[in-house]
Amino acid sequence: MFSMCGPAYGKSDVVDQGRHIVAVYAKDEDYLDGALFFAEQGIRRKEKVFLVTDTFPSEAVADHLKGSGRFDVQKAVDTGQIRFLHFREAYLYEGRFEPQRIFELIRWASAQSLEEGFSGIRVLSEMSHALCDAVGPEGLVEYEARANLHIPGCACTAVCQYDRRRFEPRLLLDLFSIHPYVAVDRHVYENRFFLAPEECLEGNLHQAILDRLIGSVMSVKLPERRLEREWDLTRELLESIPAFCVALDGEGRTVFANRTMLDRLGYTLQEVEGKGYLETFVPPEERASVAEELKLLAASEGHRKGRSRVLSRDGREFLVEWYGKRVVAEDGSPGFLFCIGLTVSESMGMREAVPERTLRGSDRTYRTVFETTGTAMFIIGRDGTLTDVNQTAERMLGRTREEMVRRCRYTDFLHPEDARKVAESLSLLWRGEVNGPLQLEIRAGSGAKGFIPALATMSVSPGGEVGVVSLMDISKEKERERVLEEKAKQMRDLLAIASHELRHPLTLVQGYAAFLRKSGDSLDAESYDRALQGIQEGAGRLTRLVEGLLDVNLIERGVYPARRRPTDLRLVVEKVAEEFRVKERREIALDLRGELERVCLNPEMISQLLVILLENACKFSPSDTAVEVRGEGREGRVRISVLDRGIGVPSEERERIFELFYQVEKVMHHSIPGLGIGLYIARKIVEAHDGRIWHRDREGGGSEFTFEFPAEPPGSRDPRVP
């Protein structure tokens, strides 16, 4: 057996050459881990490894192998030691499934690998393709059975990987029966129910399976595992009883004590197991009488009842009423003494002595604490039913206490994928296999409110009667994590793009400067002027990049206000358009209409906004096409559009192009200058003017960027002026 959970995989002889293994999995990570283990073992044995994929893309499998760092995947691919195949290449011939040709191919590939210097081949096949019409269940079972006639005679190890979520249980049962080895839940086993080809190919497969099962059942009178399961169930029952439970052997040593007793007395099972019961739990003055009572119990055929004092670790004493019985083993040996005890001092005497008003006060204290914890609290019975909830839980789930208590299970308010994890954790706590509290990040919710991320803290009461689950809303924390991750991604993008963008103008400046230093005295006036112009262009581009980053810094710090004043917007647009006609030597067509002469705006910011949009239009459209600017002012609002005949923007990118550092082109394919901050600044300028900006495709091709905002800031007009 091997385990894929740790660095040591265990014995390797189970997966030697000639082995035919069926591997089943129910999670994607188990498939990928299995492929990693079998592939790594093949690489280390100098075998040629064939990975046949279907629903998993070969790229995903390769990435998982590389991510493990266990061996050099790329080197193995380059040298031909690993080869990825789609199932159609490996199993179908002109769309037909022909098992005999596959076996011939396996024999040929095994022999060929030996000639190439490998020790054999290892074939890992994701078998989801078997569900296609070309194969079918019957053809698959016969193929896998006949493989046992061919694979043992080849230098080949074959691993067939089946997704338990996709294959019917009956088909998987047949497949288990015809594989000599089975890998399941990250372990490999020798299959004791394996049927050789001669047992199942000629006759009835299911009859052969039945015969094998009957023979197996008859060969073992009472499997050890059944006893283990029965003891597990017994232990779980004893742990759930809100009373002292203890078992003693024939020498009076403690062999078991339940959690209620151990927690109450301050011990762990390891501290008392195998120790004398009298010396551990009984006050010295009562040991003689308790020893005599245990002798009578050992000789009795029925139950015995009695009272004795039990000593806790810190010296407290409990008066306990015991019910005991001698348990005799099947072979007639004495077995052990089993006792259940109820604490008389607390359950009866103390309760009778406590005034009713004290009990009422205690209940009020409990409710006060329960309702003011600040987290959603749930009290859960062992059957999963809600027995109490607090007001925070009501608000979180949008349900009243009356609607939930005794009417719902706690799993009704958990995301289905998380309900199983919480149930498993509570089960471990109830069985005492782990000490609480336990914490998990889950999703909780109800009805139209949907699910929110929450931190669940789980524990059980000392007696194990009830479970306690608290849910803390961590949606704000998750949002902060998302924002921080987004900021980190933006910074990574900035560094990647900026390193690209800054390199060109710096190279330009350095190159021309070096050229002038070396040859400046011998240059004619035109060449000298051209070099100075190149330095100026490079410096100008650096300046624009730095100014853009400074603007982003102001925006991120929240100090980017629009100091608005009455301005002739028509003149602002015409001035920027004329600058671009000269600089870009391109036609800038204007169509400005309506009331644009007296608009309340920040002219410097609007000029910057127009420069950004016109630069984009010129940068992304052919040089022989015109860029249009259309403007209109009416009904107290102004709207400006910049239109081009460029490459356009994919529909899925339109919302993201206004994000910081986002570019339609990926960073690694960055071919058009820019840091990806222009449209982000443009959006912030428009928003500072209480407006909005958007993009849409232009009819006939190209883009149309439009922004609009009020001609006057909201509330700026004196209501006394008509």
**How many helices does DSSP assign?**
24
Tell me the major beta sheet: 7 strands, mixed
Physical arrangement of strands within the biggest beta sheet? 3-2-6-7-1-8-9
Radius of gyration, CA atoms, in whole angstroms: 39 Å
> Structural class per helix/strand content?
alpha+beta
Tell me what the CATH architecture of the largest domain is. Answer: 3-Layer(aba) Sandwich
CATH topology of the largest domain: Rossmann fold
Number of strands: 26
CATH homologous superfamily grouping of the largest domain: P-loop containing nucleotide triphosphate hydrolases
Strand content: 15-25%
The global form is extended
Determine and state the CATH class of the largest domain: Alpha Beta
Distance between the termini: 91 Å
Give a verbal description of the structure:
- With 722 residues, the protein is of the alpha+beta class.
- The chain folds into five domains: 13-219, P-loop containing nucleotide triphosphate hydrolases (Rossmann fold, 3-Layer(aba) Sandwich), CATH 3.40.50; 226-350, PAS domain (Beta-Lactamase, 2-Layer Sandwich); 373-473, PAS domain (Beta-Lactamase, 2-Layer Sandwich); 478-556, Signal transduction histidine kinase, dimerisation/phosphotransfer (DHp) domain (Helix Hairpins); 565-710, 2-Layer Sandwich (Heat Shock Protein 90).
- 44% of the residues lie in helices and 22% in strands.
- A seven-stranded mixed sheet has the order 3-2-6-7-1-8-9, with helices on both faces. Strands 11-10-14-13-12 form a five-stranded antiparallel sheet.
- Strand 12 (303-311) and strand 13 form a beta hairpin.
